[in-house]
Amino acid sequence: MNTNSKLYFGEIIGVYMILLLYYFIAEHSSWFVAIPAFFMSLASLAHSRQGGWAIPAALLFSAIGDYEGSLHNFILQILFFAIAHIFYIVDFMPQRKMSKVNKALAVLPFVYAGVFLGILTPKMGNVVEIIAVVIYAAIIATMGASALMLDIKRKWWYVVAAILFIFSDSVIVFNKYIEPVNNASLWIMTTYYAAQGLFATLCLLRRQK
Predict the structure, then answer these.
(1) Which candidate, 32, 91, 103, 165, has a CA 20 to 30 Å from the CA of 61?
(2) Using an 8 Å Cβ cutoff, are 60 and 83 in contact?
């Protein structure tokens, strides 16, 4: 990575951190929640020739999901996040390795999703929401499995980002349907933004060769 690339990379991360600070300090309950992911979608899209288009698309649909969440449109929020995860899967799938170890690891997100849904769905009364959450869980589990099957440089950072995303969404539905979580918003948003920032950063690092 040359000096100019390091400077550009540092500027992108710096702006992202400033947006996060502004959100947590001043705008934690407004539409501004969508701006950090939207910014990172633009930053990664600007260099999509080397890094690919799927992660920028995932970040864009995540930003739309953030906006719908700020309006308390839960079903639309799930829909747009599901689309975002499909784009992450599209990005990961061509880079997977079908080894025995990777296949075994890929089962873990589905086991977690199955156990979690077994606890969650009896607490939910709305059939539409149950269907939406089950479909979403299957999609995000597939995203996590796809990350675990990667055969690329920095694989485990992708896995960390996937785990953070799954954790964030788990807290959302646990807090909503099972039991209130202390400082739920802080847990949800810090892990969510960490996941999105990490995915975007890894996408940007693909270009620095």
Answers:
(1) 103
(2) no
